[in-house]
Amino acid sequence: MREQVRAAGGVVWRVPDGGTVEVLLVHRPGYEDWTFPKGKMDPDDVDEEHTALREVAEESGYRCTLGRELPGTDYIDGRGRDKHVRYWEMRPLAGSFSPNDEIDEVRWLPVADARRRLTYPHDRPVLDAFAQFAS
């Protein structure tokens, strides 16, 4: 039986003045991928909601508020472990991005552009579920 990793993250979204809905994607240079901000639960995390808010803030620089829960994803991580990620839609309250060791770039993209930019097929159903609500 493989170890299971529990993780959480968010689809952070905004509507710029006079614009359309945009979502935030992060670029991880260590994996050369574009994905949603997310991360593993820490022993101090009370629950996945706390993990999602903490990880989004750490990776993107944005402190957010939680919205509705979106579908999660299940996949095998780079170490061969089963990984389950829970996602929530999130609205930024404050903050800004600063590059760090884990994330070197973020992009705010319209949903269709974000869908094309996402590296992993398992991220697309999460975005699709968000888009159903956002349209």
Give the mean pLDDT.
Answer: 94
Q: How much of the sequence is in beta strands?
A: 35-45%
The CATH architecture name reads Alpha-Beta Complex
| Assigned CATH class | Alpha Beta
User: How many helical elements?
Assistant: 3
Kindly report the CATH topology: Nucleoside Triphosphate Pyrophosphohydrolase
Radius of gyration: 14 Å
Give the CATH superfamily: Nucleoside Triphosphate Pyrophosphohydrolase
Q: End-to-end span in angstroms?
A: 41 Å
Assign the structural class, choosing from mainly alpha, mainly beta, alpha/beta, alpha+beta, or little secondary structure: alpha+beta
Low-confidence stretches: none
Number of strands: 7
Give the helices and strands as they follow along the chain: EEEEHEEEHH
Looking at the structure, what is the overall shape?
globular
Please give the largest β-sheet: 7 strands, mixed
Write down the domain tally.
1
Helix content: 10-25%
Task: Give your account of this protein's structure.
This protein has helices spanning 48-60, 111-117, 124-134; strands spanning 4-14, 22-28, 33-35, 38-40, 62-76, 82-95, 105-110. With 135 residues, it is of the alpha+beta class. The protein has one domain (4-134): Nucleoside Triphosphate Pyrophosphohydrolase (Alpha-Beta Complex), CATH 3.90.79.10. A hairpin with a 5-residue loop joins strand 5 and strand 6 (82-95). The mean pLDDT is 94.
List keywords for this structure.
single chain; 135 residues; alpha+beta; Nucleoside Triphosphate Pyrophosphohydrolase; 7-stranded mixed sheet; 3 helices; 7 strands; 23% helix; 44% strand
